[in-house]
Structures are given as structure tokens and as C-alpha cells.
Design a protein that fits this description.
By secondary structure, this protein is α/β, with parallel strands linked by helices. The chain has eleven helices and ten strands. It folds into three domains: 74 residues, no CATH class; 62 residues, no CATH class; 182 residues, Rossmann fold, CATH 3.40.50.410. It is 34% helix and 19% strand.
Length: 403
């Protein structure tokens, strides 16, 4: 804003020029950030699969190398270097031939090269760009727990306070009242001049507000057919799912379950490193997840999100138990249940098709997706968190023969 003269004093012309310069700089900065965000959108798939960003949990700002952005810079002129078109030589002389050594000095150079620009962006901004690019809907809480936070509400007026909270309408009303009572108000020249005692300020009071809280269950098959490549895909996908859920809830807990033929809860750092062998019983993970919900997370107080990652292998006789636990216990309790099937050379890839056959679009909070490689992670996040995709594409394969 341009400064205005006060108390009849005229501000110097340089003050107005400074304000305009500041406004211009702020516009340039905003325009530059828009350009940066545009470049990030163009390369979003590459940034999302960057494991370096995932390793920075707990930090709110990340540095991203963004190519093809030229930053204005000064070019220094070396003395006695000559100008354009100056120096020895005639028109048509060959200056350099590919493969032929020049006469330059050997050894290390001293001038900078060209590098991608590293820009800083908050993780929250990056998650927002992810949501905009994938058109992800907001996660709507279905329950509010006992956790409360105090939020300020400006609902009263006081005679003291900071100038930033001065209530101008109430201040002039008080000044008008004082002048009318004292007889100093002139109807022919209606000038209202507030004095210090007329000043009124907004004041706030803290009111308790219910806060929604959420828990995320991450489940993963760690049998022998799930290798390091598959676990890396799960790690990247789970990281961005976690960030998106955290964007909508203030209090978020995470629980990690691994399974082969049996399931157990593990810490987060062990979740992505554990490797076991043996058979696969998916129902063991679903039963443990249901048990933890019953013991610690009442659906009336918690918003529950569950995601299971597997290569699609399951003991055939276990399918019925897995479907029963999922359909009768988990789906009625959770806000969203997502199943991501990671491609593996050793996995049959059947379970996602059996899930689609069993539920056949009956459950709105069940999401299915395939993740064939890192290039499919962005599409998988859209399928798991976006609008309910159709499962018809997972119902084309013939049913597996049992028995």
C-alpha cells in the first residue's frame, strides 16, 4: 500500500517509489513461484517417485531441482577481453573444428557451469500440487472424537489492544457519541476526530472446538514373492497416502502390519525392511487390523483408513475368510479401504480380481488398483484416494478353479 501523509506532513516522493518497488518485487516473486509450480507439475511423476523426498519425513521444506528455469544474473566483463567482433582474424576463418584441440589452458577451470535450479517448496505445497494434479477430493471426516482444541473467536470489543486490531467503525461511533454529548459536533461541518479514549479494539476469546482424528493402517505381504523392488513401490505409495491424509486431520496415528501366513504389528522402520518366507494368508492381516480397531479405535470417535499391499498371491482356502473379515468387519468400520496389488514375477496376481468379483461395486469405500512399476504410482494414488473407480477392469479375467 502507498503510504499517506499523516498530521499534515508530506512524505518524500522516494517513499512512494519504494512502495511501488516492493509491490513489483512481490509480484515478480509470486510469478516466479507460479512458474516453479508449473515446472513441478510437468515433472510431478518424477518428483513423486523420488526416494530422497521420502527420506525427509519430519521436515516441512524440501529442495527440488527444477530444470529449464533461467534465473536473472549479472555477467561480469573481464578487462582487456575485447568486445564482439574484435581481435585478430578475417571473415570466414574457422574458429574451432570438432575433435581438434584448442589452445586453451590445461587443468581445472574456474567458471561455473550450467546446473538445474534448486528451489525450496514446503511439503504441504507439494502435496497440494499432487491433489490438484490428480483431482483428489477432500477427505470428509465421518466422526469427531473427544480431542478438542481451543480456537480464537473475535467476539468482543475492548478499550485496549494492538493497532492491527483497532475496530474503526466502533472507534468513530464512540467519537461521534462523545462529540455530540459534549456539544462539539457541528452538523454543518461534520468532522469526527477520535481521541485516544475513543479507540476500540477487537478482542478474542478461546472456544473449545472438536477435532477430528484419524488412524491409518498400512498392511503388507512380506512373503518370499515380495522383493525389494515391490517394497520400494509400497514405501513410496504409502508415503504420499500418509501425507494426503495428514493434510485433512490434525491428529493422525499410523499402525503397520506385516503378514505371510501369520500377521504381526511392527514399527514403521521395520515395515519396509522385513523379509520373510512361507505361505500367504491375507485374512491374518485383516483379522489383526480388525482386532486393533475393536481394542483402540472406536469408529464413532476415529476416522479409519486402511491400505493393504500384496502381489496378489493368497492361499486358496483363505480367500473366503479374507472376504468375510473385509466385508463384515472392516468395510463397515473404515472410511476407506484400499488394496494395491504390486506386480511381481512370482505372484499370481489373482487376489484383486477375486476381490472385484466378490464385492462387484457393492462397497463405495473399497478401492482397488494395480501398481506394475514406479511409473504407475501416480495412477495408483489417484485410484486409491480419488473418486471411486470402477472395478469392472478387474473382472475380466476368468475365475480361478478351486479344489
Amino acid at each position: 500500500m502507498n503510504q499517506k501523509p499523516t498530521n499534515g506532513q508530506q512524505l518524500p516522493a522516494s517513499a512512494g517509489r519504494t512502495d511501488k518497488m516492493v509491490e513489483r518485487i512481490e509480484r515478480d516473486v509470486a510469478r516466479f513461484r507460479d512458474i516453479v509450480k508449473g515446472k513441478i507439475r510437468q515433472n510431478l511423476r518424477k518428483f513423486i517417485t523420488n526416494t530422497e523426498l521420502i527420506g525427509r519425513q519430519g521436515k516441512t521444506i524440501v529442495s527440488i531441482p527444477v530444470p529449464q528455469i533461467e534465473i536473472p544474473h549479472f555477467t561480469y566483463r573481464w578487462r582487456d577481453a575485447g568486445g564482439v567482433g574484435q581481435g585478430e582474424g578475417e571473415e570466414g576463418d574457422i574458429l574451432w573444428v570438432e575433435g581438434q584441440e584448442g589452445e586453451g589452458q590445461r587443468g581445472a577451470g574456474f567458471l561455473p557451469g550450467l546446473h538445474p535450479v534448486e528451489v525450496e517448496i514446503t511439503l504441504e505445497e507439494l502435496v497440494e500440487l499432487l491433489g490438484q494434479e490428480l483431482e483428489l477430493p477432500r477427505l470428509e471426516p465421518k466422526s469427531y472424537g473427544q480431542m478438542q482444541s481451543e480456537k480464537p473467536r473475535y467476539k468482543s470489543i475492548r478499550r485496549v489492544g494492538p493497532e492491527s486490531l483497532r475496530h474503526f467503525k466502533r472507534t468513530f461511533r464512540q467519537a461521534l457519541r462523545r462529540q455530540m454529548l459534549s456539544g462539539t459536533y457541528n452538523h454543518e461541518n461534520p468532522v469526527i476526530i477520535p481521541v485516544h479514549d475513543d479507540f476500540r479494539y477487537r478482542s478474542f476469546e478461546y472456544e473449545p472446538q472438536p477435532e477430528s482424528k484419524a488412524v491409518i493402517f498400512f498392511m503388507m505381504d512380506v512373503s518370499g514373492s515380495m522383493g525389494d523392488e515391490q517394497k520400494e513401490i509400497v514405501r513410496i505409495t504409502a508415503f504420499w497416502i500418509d501425507q494426503w491424509v495428514r493434510r485433512h486431520y490434525k491428529g493422525v496415528e499410523r499402525r503397520y502390519i506385516v503378514h505371510d501366513a501369520a500377521a504381526r504389528e511392527v514399527p514403521e522402520d521395520l515395515f519396509y525392511r522385513l523379509r520373510e518366507s512361507g505361505g500367504t494368508k491375507i485374512s491374518s492381516a485383516y483379522k489383526l487390523c480388525s482386532k486393533l480397531i475393536d481394542e483402540h479405535y472406536s469408529p464413532t470417535e476415529w476416522n479409519i483408513y486402511a491400505f493393504h499391499f500384496s502381489d496378489g498371491d493368497n492361499w486358496e482356502e483363505d480367500d473366503a475368510d479374507a472376504f468375510e473379515v473385509l466385508g463384515e468387519k472392516l468395510l463397515p468400520q473404515v472410511n476407506l479401504f484400499g488394496y494395491g496389488q504390486v506386480y511381481s514375477h512370482w505372484g499370481s496376481g489373482r487376489f484383486i480380481y477375486d476381490l472385484a468379483d466378490e464385492f462387484a461395486n457393492e462397497s463405495e469405500n473399497l478401492r482397488l488398483t494395480e501398481i506394475r512399476s514406479k511409473e504407475y504410482i501416480l495412477d495408483a494414488i489417484r485410484n486409491l484416494l480419488g473418486k471411486n473407480p470402477s472395478s469392472e477392469s478387474f473382472r475380466q479375467r476368468p475365475q480361478r478353479r478351486r479344489g
